[in-house]
Amino acid sequence: MSGILVVAEHSGGTFKATASELLGKASQLGGTVYAAVLGDAPAASLGGFGASKVFQAAGDFGTHDSGAAADALAAIIRAADPDIVIAPASYEMRDVLPRLTARFDSAMASECNGLRIDGGKLVARRPIYAGSIESDVTISARPAFATVRPNSFDKPASTGASAPVESVAWSATTPTTKVVETLKPETRGIDLATASKVVAGGRSLKSKESFDSVIRTLGEVMGAGVGASRAATDAGYADHSEQVGQTGQTVAPNLYLAIGISGAIQHLAGMRTSKVIVAINKDPEAPIFQHASYGIVGDLFEVVPALTEALKNA
Amino acid sequence: MKIGVCAKITPDADARIKVAADGQSIVLDGVKFGISDYDEYAIEEAIRTKEKHGGEIVSFTVGDASADKQLRSGALALGVDRSVLVTENPGDPLGIAKLLAAAIQKEGGFDVVFTGKSTIDQQNFQIGTMVAELLGWAHVTQVTALEFEGNQFKATRNMDAGIRQVVAGTLPAVISCEDGLNTVRYAKLPDIMKAKKKPLDSVGAGAIGGDAGAARSSVGNLAPPPARPAGRMIEGDAATAAKELVRLLRDEAKVL
After folding, report:
1. How many domains does chain A have?
2. What is the distance in angstroms between the Cα of B112 and the nearest Cα belonging to chain A?
């Protein structure tokens, strides 16, 4: 057998958007497309996105044990024998794929935003140096591993097709860690990393209270994930996990609103591949405007409430 | 505790990186180098661990012979006891991980090895996890809080959607360090002077029994990201501009 194996992540049995996104991309690359599912999820439904067969490993992966996930995926890789293994660049898969790469004595391209096949080899496009440069990683070993940043490719709609599911047995060999506590953030609706729309605020918000009343209110009205610049998270206006930038999350939504954010290199590294960027800033010289699709020079405390109002009425 | 730390020498975070004419590498002239930012957190955590639990810190670097300068000022001057510099240039991340794992194994006896979550140049998020796999150890990545008790550890790590998890495991382990774990210290002048006399071993792969193997991947075709189409400024008072923005996002950009 040969082909492309896509790791389809799910949350409590509901497939994440990255599953259809990566299966759609794998189908475009050509060859046979397989999906890998860890734990309990409706695996057969992945046939609707192009998987010709789904390999499923049973187990309780919900408690996040990256060692167990690595062992189960290794068993699936041995069963499917793919040329290429693609997974989302999620925290979990960041943890798992390097282990597998070392186990299979192969190579991995991390956090990619483009994939192609050239001369039978996987060539992955990915940002380096805080996104100021892009590079190709060409993998000559097999299977080639890659993680892909969410929102890099179009997500196909399901054809409704069903795929055969093969159950794969696995055993734990990796030293494990055990999840003893899960801490959920206080204020969070939409996952920032995979959100199709993101509203982000900077230091100009001046306080946690105004960050909440201005940025989070707009986020709620838009159905957007909420992000923040490093200056804003350092000042305590937003949670550290909401930081967008080189030292925080990297996002690539369809729409990114940078509000009161000047556009330091460190911030740009986390959002520059967003499809449409809106900048609202009172400083017309702010570097963020050079990257913006649409810009408004003005006081965010006037413009953003007006925007929230206009969206409510839209 | 015997504490290891892996540190890479990279261009400084604020360095202006340009692509060389051949499109295969970056221009190194005039670029300042230092220890990669996340590896600085790893060094700091190693020092804090030693301060609390006692022991010895050994750092491991794969890089050019010239890295000794940054290792003295950025690792030994801060509190690392000894540095091992493997002067090889493997062509892929797994090659680097293999040399680090070999050097760690050759030295032996470690309870914990710290790394940064990724390096700021290639941003691969791979090395720490690969080293754990090669050594057969547990690992936790992107750690923002950490404690040790006997041969057990408890680490808080970042997950998707702002979720944090506290995970427990048994040493030895590789811990990869995230922003927020600690605040790094800076070297004092007397410590920089003393660091000149601390042991720094430059070794080849053979001396540590390591073999990076032939590179399994290559990096090339470097270019700045594609230029964005020129943007449009929206004029008018707040209410007018806000309405126009909504119209453009809905009808022109079609993202609402």
Report:
1. 2
2. 14
